[in-house]
Amino acid sequence: MSDSRQQVLNAIRQTLPNALLPDAHPEHPKRSIATPPDGIDRFIAEAELLSARVIRAGDSLETAEQVVRILTENNWRRVFAWPWEEIGCKELPDRLADAGVAAHFQGNPVDLAALPVGITGAEAALADTGTIVVRGGEGRSMLASLLPPVHIALVDSRRLFPCLSAYLDSLPGSDHLAAASNTVFISGPSRTADIEQTLTLGVHGPRELIIILWG
Amino acid sequence: MNLEAPTSSFHHRVQDAFQNPGRLEAIRQAAARFYEHRDAVLGALQDADALRDLARLIRAHTIANLDTYLVQFEVSVQQAGGQVHWARDAAEARSIVLDIACQADAKRIAKSKSMVTEEIRLNKALMDAGLEVIETDLGEFIAQLGGDHPSHIIAPVLHLTRQEIGAIFQEKLGVDYTDDPLALNQIAREKLREVYLSSDIGITGCNFAVAESGTICLATNEGNGRMVTTLPRVHIAIMGMERIVPTLDDLAVMLQLLGRSATGQKMTVYTSLINGPRRQGDPHGPDAVHVIILDNGRTKALAGDLAEILYCIRCGACLNVCPVYKTIGGHAYGSVYPGPVGAIISPILGGIPAFADLPHASTLCGACQEVCPVRIDLPALLLRLRRDTVVEGQSPSWLRRGMQIYAKTASKPSRFSLATGVAALGTRLLGRDWIRLPFPGPLAAWTRFRHFPVFARRIFQHQLKDDQHE
Ligand code: SF4
To answer: What is the pLDDT of residue B73?
Structure first.
């Protein structure tokens, strides 16, 4: 096997000098593309274009109330959630308990798949594409944003970036993303158009994405 | 060979495609829709041209330093707890997957859409070994159920109607017939849920691999890619060795172009970044992540003046604008990789004898180069491949014979002038304006669909002489 590694690398090294590679330069090209000065309005417009629902909330108390309202309106009594400290809305656990909502944070995926709604945080929102950045890690199951038919994501509006590049620029280095085994950029609910190009939501992932942009 | 050779000739495959005009129409409409969306979102993007220039520079730089970046990527994956395997060809890649499956004592495998696994014909090998393999992308799932092949890089069952799909579901899944897309989606959702939750291994391709961080990037819309990389115990990602980008910043540039060029989406719904298996504290995720780096003929591409094709990011935009693709559809290419990009990749990987016709299946109109997000000079590559088919003695026989006759005739002025004189007389005798008669023999196929032009009354040599005398 290590033999194959050496053979492939040798083959590349032998052929590269003869390769016609137009526009190849030895130095690594750097970006000098202007980032658009997009803000909250753009984010909401883009996310809604993708069939996501965006709700604006003030402080964390109002955010918690919004979540409870959505859950009680739909009579959802059980949720698949990230640990509260990972979501960062401090009033949420008490409010949910008051409303009689039971939260599950981990467990067997077969059981979790039966829950009607998933609640997660998001570490950033990207305005120009209506995207939220959901990063896995300590306690933060990637399935909470995937298995239930509805995904509610809470995003701090101070974490809104004009675009993906601006978000990456804000990170100290590549280590931040490399430190999580799984990160996903989510742009709208699950969709397919495989059958006669007819757009359908929720083919495998959530059919509904509700983003609560707070602060 | 690295790519399976088609079993029938190009002309037969095209004839087959024409048997079903409804399918071809569906392909044309979808291609037009993708292209319209692409045009709109790229037009709305600030600095789209500069972004494409940058993407091209990044791809060029990466391929020129491929060995360095592959080694860096390998180290990064290992640091993240993943395992890296190298495969020289399809057979080796298949046996690596089989070994992993055997060690994991796997029975059921869930797959997310990937061209490269089609390229190495992985499914058949796994099923021959007694494993159950299920495609989970809705289109691929339908194609697999129907025993069909994908016809488009992005939309695999573009060629099937909802009625055909309804019939396939009824027959293979034992459900009541419906041709309502929503209901069909729901059936697939339930069926595949069960598959995700019970599979031992998830297999994916890889849209991009980031050298600095060891990240596997997967761009999907349905969420099946996320399922198969989160629920099964083992995740195997197979990547063509050219899928590399150096940094996450470079990845951002590619992601800004991939969805926009492919379907006109600003971002695919789910863009996953995978860095090794689950860590301490992760509630879910695979226990093991394997990455297979595949050569399978790509170093052959690197060896000469076709290497630019390795800049490709597999967006499929060149298919959607290609007049030949829109006329004959994907299956007629006889390869996993159809369209302009396929007409170049297929003969490189699969050998010129098997795919000698593909470089000729182009009008060289240049639309592909125009839309390519990394500005690959596809027409130039097609021309170079045509040259290679001649050098290898694999050009179409009519072309070879025709060129031999032409060479004989044109090498002597007297013969040339005689021949053109005869042709001028002949074509005038056969018809007045445009010749509408079908020709016999080798010209029959050509004249069945086109008029044969009448030659000028006076041949050029005579006109020239007259002019000089004046
Ligand atoms: S050749 Fe260019 S347009 Fe065609 S699939 Fe590759 S990147 Fe896209």
So the answer is: 98
Residue A208's alpha-carbon distances to A116, A152, A204, A211, in angstroms, are 11, 8, 12, 10
Residues of A in contact with B223 (CB under 8 A): 146, 190, 203-206
- CATH code of the domain containing B70: 3.40.50.10420
- Opening angle at CA A169, ends A164 and A171, nearest 5: 105
Number of domains in chain A: 1
Is residue A17 one of the residues assigned to a domain?
no
Answer yes or no: do B406 and B286 share one domain.
no
Maximum distance among all Cα pairs of chain B, rounded to whole angstroms: 94
The SS3 of residue A85 is helix
Instruction: Determine the Cα–Cα distance for residues A122 and B40; give it in Å rounded to an integer.
Output: 29
SS3 for A124?
strand
Residue in B116, B8, B1 with CA at minimum distance from that of residue B333: B8
Residue A43 belongs to what domain range? 37-190+200-214
Q: How far apart are CA B191 and CA B173, in angstroms?
A: 9
Give the number of the atom of ligand 1 that is nearest the alpha carbon of residue B153. 5
The rounded Å distance from CA B369 to ligand 1 centre is: 8
pLDDT tens digits, B396-413? 777 778 888 888 888 888
- Asked whether the beta carbons of residue A16 and residue B274 sit closer than 8 angstroms, the reply is no
Distance of CA B124 to the CA centre of its chain: 20
Q: Which residues of A touch B77 (CB under 8 A)?
A: none
Residues A64-73 pLDDT 10s: 999 999 999 9
Query: Which residues have CB under 8 Å from A34's CB, separation 6+?
Result: B46, B47
Which candidate, B355, B340, B350, B338, places its Cα nearest to that of B115? Answer: B338
Are the beta carbons of A4 and B303 separated by less than 8 Å? no
Q: Given this model, what pLDDT does residue A104 score?
A: 96
CA-based torsion, B151, B155, B161, B164: positive or negative: positive
Residue A83 inside a domain? The answer is yes
Q: DSSP of B308-320, one letter per residue? A: GGGG-----HHHH
Residues B121 and B253 in one domain: yes
Give the end of a domain, one of B243, B272, B299: B299
Close Cβ partners of B266 (under 8 Å, ≥ 6 residues apart): A46, A128, A129, A130, A187, B41, B259, B260
Q: Report pLDDT for A30.
A: 82
pLDDT at B364 over 90: yes
